[in-house]
Amino acid sequence: MLTLRIAWRNLWRNNRRTAITFAALSLNTAVLIASFALMLGMLDDLVRNATDLVVGQVQVHHPKYRSERSIYDTVIKPGDILQAAASAGIAASPRAYGFGLVSHGKNSAGARFCGVFPEKEKKTVELYKHLLAGNYLPDKPGKKLVLGRKLAKTLEVKVGDEIIVVVQAADGSMGNDIYHVAGILKSMGEGIDRTLAMVHYKDMEDLFALNGTFHEIVLNSSGKMPEDKVAAAILPSAKGNEVMTWRQLMPPLNDMLNAMNGMLILFGAIFFLAAGLGVMNTMLMSTFERIREFGLLKAIGATPWRIIKEVSAEALLLGVASTLAGGAIGTFLAWYFQYHPIDLTGFAPDGISAMGVAMNPEWRATLSPETVWMPIVVMWIISLLAVLWPAVRAARLDPVKALVQV
Amino acid sequence: MKTAGLFIIITIFLTAFTPASIGAGAHASAKNILDRIDDLYRGKSSHAKMSMKVVTSHYTREMIMEEWTRGKDFSLVRILSPRKDRGTATLKAGKDIWNYLPKIKRVIKIPSSMMSRSWMGSHFTNDDLVKESRMADDYNYSITFEGKRNGKDIIELTLDPKPDAAVVWGKVVIVVDKKDMLPVFARYLDEDMKLARTMYFSNVKILGKRKIPSTMKVVPADKPNEYTEFSVLNIDFDVNLDRNFFSIRNLKK
Amino acid sequence: MALSKIIKLAWRNLWRHKRRTWITVSSIGLGMAFALFLIALGDGVYKKLIDQGIRLEAGHVTLEHPDYEKAPAVDRYVGPLSSISKACRSISGVKRIRPIIRGQAVISTSAGSSGVGVVAGNPEEEKAVSLIPGKIVEGRYIEKGDKRGVVIGKSLAKRLKLKVGKKLVLTTNDVNGELVNELLRVKGIFKTGIEEADGFLVQVPLAVGRRIYKLPDDYVTRIGLILDDPKDQDSVMEAVSAALSGKNVAVLPWQKVLPDLSSYIAVDKGSNIIFQITILFLIGFTILNTILMSVMERQREFATLLAIGTSPLFLKAQVLVESAFIGLLGCVLGLGIGGSLSYYVEKNGLDMSSTFSKGTSVAGFTIDPLIRTDLTMGLMLWLGLGVFLGTMVIGLYPAFKSGKVDIAQTLRMN
Predict the structure, then answer these.
(1) Are residues A258 and A152 in the same domain?
(2) Which of A344, B66, B230, C93 is deepest in the core (most CB within 10 A)?
(3) Are the beta carbons of A123 and A117 closer than 8 angstroms?
(4) Number of domains present in the structure of chain A
């Protein structure tokens, strides 16, 4: 207790030195916390982009659907799966797919129709927020279409235009009808941009004679559970179906995320080194400056142990005080960026996609306990080391020599 | 695209097999037989009524349609039944293909890229339907059997694709009834000499003053319970149709 | 001469306080090394991404028919290739000229059919540029002499039950809109890990592509220019546009041809800039701190010097020169360490495969586990100058302060 009190007093004796060290420690801690939260947020954003925009965390298909893409390979007992998802608190959206021709004026193109229940779809994924023009599908069926960007460009259509659709229905007949463009999606990756035509499931059911069948059920807990848990929650009800997490559905993206993770670890290490260097050098400087003082202490009879004890106590006090301050600032910054994401839209106004997955150009921090305590603890260790080295040297020093050193 | 493909395929099917000349099959060389099969359904122009039945594990579908052709560039197909599709029509004029959809009273143009798409629901591959070339040009052929088989006098022809011919098959075996020199069935094998599908010809009738097998049935080897069957109900060859008949106005009628 | 005396004194003074000098120099040097490495690493990753995107499409600069971009079709071809090549070859910075024909087709086998994209190119050129020749898992890549050779992706092969040596029929519309059928034989099967390529892309030799689509001799749909240094893009584009002016050729940057990749990189660069600014800020702060600290430490020294009659101006100049030396030494150290580290990683790559969960099967696109830095003279110069000037600006404070030390007060302390 006495040591601490002396240390406290000592700290205030040279308040400028203390202030500089304090600033170095707290600022580095704050920057580390904020940067780590941003790095973590970047990874989370990628996962979120991968899952929350279109794909969801988990998808259920008929085991043959993904390779054959046949309209007849429908999800087995979709009702059970939807019920299991609902009771586990997981949002679920059933979808139906089919190929057809869309035509406007002289232009026509092949399209992949996707039928959804808009109100369920909106609760599951955020595609509806990514419109370049117009609106998302209304909740009630009304022969409306939401088109991929490049498909709309090929057809030369704008919102409100009439589109003729011709499809091969499940009963072998030819479904045809007139639809109207409700909205056009932002860039969502080649597959969606060039071929997607989204419609209300009820419209799709009529057009393709689907009889209440689905080809895909998308599940998303929106970050409440990891994808494995989501898969596990519905697995018992999905017998006979193929249940896959987004990591299995999109291995290149999973690999990219892992690579990104590796990159960020490297970045993090560099940041740690840079911040550590800053604190280390500032502390070393401030302690070496005091070597004369230690020599004096020793000359008047202080034991080496007492010097070390005093210096460490000072470092500890300063370390704790400044990392607490830095921690608070850093946590605040991280919290701020979590709710006020950095907007990168300016770099890509039409939306972006990579590896076939659309990205949300907003960069959000993720505040997690590790991002806070890790930098703090590391800073303590660094400041203690930076103080002990010169202190030990001073303690072992011949007092006369120490005094001579300017 | 499936539907468009269907109509196009029928159109091409008939146009591809149309100009006329029936050789008398007295002295049958392999080439004579092949040319005769190629020319069975060909004419300068034609007017036909035909039915198509598609049986798959998911649905069975029957259609009756009427078709007019002129040369290989012009054709018009109109569906007569079922009621749901009645009036739906396809026009092929040169390189352009148009579809008329009575339900929405619209004409749409089918992009030429769609023309080459396979018809997924059917048991016809793109290749054998789109092709306008003659078998004798694409294959090396020989008579591999002549005589009685199952009590029937037949000739068996084996066709090996020429190395550069645009043919997906590894081998085609055609069996012809020696009596009238009309095909009975054709087996299509893949490059590993595994059977891929069989085409049966039956129901020989005199239609349009020609003796032809009026029914063609295709059975895929991997799905023996499925088939697609065309039947010519009646056909007239070399009818008088002028170019203006193949117009969009007529398509909508 | 006063200046040389100042320099000499400053230099000697630095080494009288070896420890302090080294701490400050190392703050600058190591900090700068980290920043250099971090920036070079980021640039390296982008370079790789762009490189791989370009390998799939055409080149850093693409020459095509002015209307090709609006609706890519084989009848919008560009040429004559020989005269365009000749014009481009004389432009410095152009490393390779890569003519390709891109088209759509349906390929059929006895097992089924599938729509595909067709890329026809010069096999030798493609081997140097394209991603696919290096990803052949069965058979071999196409050769110039292959009259009917084609390489297809693994998933396509699986769907259509194709093996090396087997045939397929390619059906498409030629430039006149006529339907053409062409028999091709599978020479090799590739696996890139990109489903768009593995499932829907086939490659044939340029001559085969020209025959199929009936393009006139010496015409292609795209001419890609691969550059020695992507940074020369603007100047090369200007030179190419000038050389081809009057011809009916659109000169496009890769950003136009690959808008997805371009915007992705733009956004990712945005976040990277934030990291770079942060680390530069940390380093600047460390330099500021160490220099501030050393000023305080030296209060007594300054007071003594002033007390024995050194002129304040002389002292200020001396301290400023010391800062300059420190900045210079820090830069040399930083560029030395950071430069050699970056150079090493650029030459040998940094193996990140340990960070992949699955380790071995890494898809071909962005995720080569070997990442490389991209170190440029410009970056080193820019960073070196920035850090040196920064140190000098920070050094103004102690210099200014040194001449104004309160002698009596300071000497009384301690």
Answers:
(1) no
(2) A344
(3) no
(4) 2
Taking a C-beta distance cutoff of 8 angstroms, is the pair B228, B122 a contact? yes
Considering just the CA atoms, what is the radius of gyration of chain B in Å? 18
Q: Which range of residues forms the domain containing residue A318?
A: 2-52+254-404
DSSP code at position A75: P
Contact A149, A183 (CB under 8 A): no
Token pair in block for residue A250: 């999109």
- Would you say how long chain C is, in residues? 414
Return the partners of chain B (3 or more C-beta pairs < 8 Å): A, C
Judge if the upstream peptide bond of residue C80 is cis by omega within 30 degrees of 0.
yes
A268 in the same domain as A143: no
Whether residue B168 and residue C178 make contact (CB cut-off 8 A), yes or no, is no
CB contact under 8 A, C24 and A261: no
Residues of chain C with Cβ-Cβ distance to B188 below 8 Å are 110
DSSP-derived letter for residue A384 is H
Cβ-Cβ pairs closer than 8 A, A with B, add up to 67
DSSP string, A217-240: EEEE-TTSS-HHHHHHHHGGGGTT
The answer to whether residue A248 is domain-embedded is: no
Asked if B2's CB is within 8 angstroms of A167's CB, the reply is yes
Cβ-contact B102, B109 below 8 angstroms? no
Neighbours of C, requiring at least 3 CB pairs below 8 Å, are: A, B
Query: Residue A262 is nearest to which of C30, C296, C352, comparing CB atoms?
Result: C352
> Which residues share a beta bridge with A277?
none
Task: Check CB contact under 8 Å for A166 and B108.
Answer: yes
> Is A232 found in the same domain as A258?
no
Tell me: the pLDDT tens digits for C178-224? 778 889 999 999 987 666 778 888 999 999 999 999 999 899 999 99
CA triple A177-A183-A186, angle to 5 deg: 130
Q: With CA atoms as reference, report the closest residue to C250 among C70, C66, C76.
A: C66
pLDDT per residue rounded down to tens, chain A (406 residues): 677 787 777 777 777 778 888 888 898 889 889 988 988 888 887 787 778 888 899 999 999 888 777 889 999 999 999 999 999 999 999 999 998 889 898 788 888 999 999 999 999 998 898 899 999 999 999 999 999 988 898 888 999 999 999 888 888 777 889 999 999 998 777 678 878 999 999 999 999 999 999 999 999 998 788 889 999 999 999 999 999 998 888 776 777 777 777 778 888 888 888 888 888 887 787 777 777 777 787 788 878 888 788 888 888 888 888 999 999 999 999 999 988 888 877 666 666 665 555 666 778 888 888 888 988 988 888 888 888 887 787 777 776 666 665 4
Best of C154, C159, C262, C282 to substitute, by most chain A Cβ atoms within 10 angstroms, is: C282
State how far residue A395 is from chain C, nearest Cα, in angstroms.
Answer: 18
